[in-house]
Amino acid sequence: MHDFCFTYPYGIVLLCGGLVGFLRRGSLASLYGGVGAGILLLVAGKISLSAYHKGSNSLLSQILQTVIALSVSWVMGERFLDTGKVMPAGMVAAISVIMSLFYAYKLASGGNHIPKKQNTS
Which domain, by its residues, includes 64? Predict the structure, then answer.
């Protein structure tokens, strides 16, 4: 599975969660953190998808995705431990830990698998 296949939905979840947190509670931290992380993930996903279409990997996007997922895991994990609230802190922390593990695996395994083009001669 390619990183961008999960990065787009993950980025959208964080972006929407940040917007909802701001609109419902007036939380600027949700707005900046959620929307900022979501937008950065969407940009990283686009970079990764563009590199894939060119037949290469983007180490920059893979590192960016991993750092963002680890950061969100840390922040939301601490918030969950402080408040004990499963929604949203526990759920976002759990999703972010899973994504961190996925991104770490992709980094360790050399990135996206790029299929070799076959000659049709």
Answer: 3-108
